[in-house]
Amino acid sequence: MPLFRKRRFGSRRSHGATPRLMPMRRHSRFDDWLNRCVDIAVVLALLVGVIALVVHLLL
Fold first, then answer.
1. What is the largest CA-CA distance in the chain?
2. Which regions span the lipid bilayer (predicted)?
3. Which domain holds residue 36?
C-alpha cells in the first residue's frame, strides 16, 4: 500500500482559474503598535484568568 496517493495526470500545480500572488502588505507603525497592544492585553487577560482560577480553587 503506497503512503502517498498518485495525482491524476501528473499535475502538481493548483487547479485554480488564475494564479494569484500574495499582495504586498505595508507595515505601518500604527499597525505594529496596535498589534503589540493587543498582544499585551491578551497576555494580561490570561494572567488575570489564571490568578482568578487559582484563588478560586484555593479558597
1. 66
2. 33-58
3. 29-59
